[in-house]
Amino acid sequence: MSGSKPNVIAFIISHRSQLKLYIPIFENSQGRSFVVFHKNIQEDNELKKALESRGHKYKTYLDDNDLSNFLKDGEVNTLITESIALVNLKNKIPKLKIFYLQHSHDIVSFFPQNISLETLNSVDKFLLFSDYWKEEFINSLLKRFDGNLKEIQNIKEKTIVVGFPEIEQIKSFSKHEILKKFNLQTSKKIIFFDPIGTVNHVGNVFFGYFFKLHGNFLNKIKIFSIQFFYDAYHHPFKIPKILFLILKLYFNKEYSFNNQSLLEDLRTYCDKNNALLVVKSREKNNDPDYIKNLTDYYSYDLEFYPFTLLELLFVSDLYIGFNSSTTMEAVACSTNAMQLNVCPKEYQYTDYGGGIYDYLDLQLSTEHSWINYPGIVSILDRKTTVQNSIDDSCFIIEQHLQKAYVKKFLMDLENGSKRIMNNIFNLHE
What we know:
This protein has 20 helices and 13 strands. By secondary structure, the chain is α/β, with parallel strands linked by helices. Strands 3-2-1-4-5-6-7 form a seven-stranded parallel β-sheet, sandwiched between helices. A six-stranded parallel β-sheet has the order 10-9-8-11-12-13, with helices on both faces.
């Protein structure tokens, strides 16, 4: 056998939630141990304990320079990351094998603008969900790096379809046990709502200054101020444009609902139709009390393996969200999805994510995209209401459509982690 087997395989995380993607790989690694590098000031004792109990090492690092110093000793020669920015490590450690692992639609819609084609070419393999995403990825590179066909062809040859390892968790799920775990009634339909966080920079006035306004007058002032100072700090030269778009939006009567009114509409629907309203949020969202008060069950991510989000989606009958990759997770869990068409790109004030709103607008308007798939993923337009949009068909999953959707966007639900490990070892051989 030529070449060398990987000494130690390292995974990079910047926050705990990334473990939902990695742990299925750990569980299917045939006894091999890994090291997990966590970008954090201090050790996360709970995380460290969870990893070490599985036989893996845990190390923290402060920045990319700190991480590269860890890697220079040669113990680690294989790096798996979901952050495309970290592929720059290849420049410092040429012998390091780097695998980029897709975790969402970001590979197409939100690609760092400062990443050069040369740096991308330094990645040893891109591990993507399915042929669909491979084609989308290559087409996005062709559009961005027009005239560099040879380099892009090289990237294409290194782009491998492996599936979505996170979703392998659902094989062990029991609907009865999950309902019992979260104390949810079994006799009622469950609607899962994924709210927008209070402050989330998306480069769009609609989300930043209108959609997230809620609560009393003082709370609205608070949210507005936080958002404005955030934007002023990050985009000081865009302030005149931001102010203009804010005024334009508030005089545009087309956009009549916000985060609170939408949730209230869902609450009314659930009360009238004997359904439960479930919300899974994140601690960083700093959700106002009204979100918790309007729901039957409210939770943060309690665990990442099994992943709380997946467990709740698994027992839900309908998922409602905002053009998130959670849509694919919902369908994988045999749950219908509804996307809120509330991302008017005309109120975009930055080129955030390399035109993320252009991308989302195209996906919303294209049938059989991952956020517009008739029979599986429907669209709730911003001009309509929940009451007029949800009917009995929204709670019935068409199995043949679900299988077609999974095959197109996720490949399958079972073998992602095995394919990833095989590709790692094949590269070293």
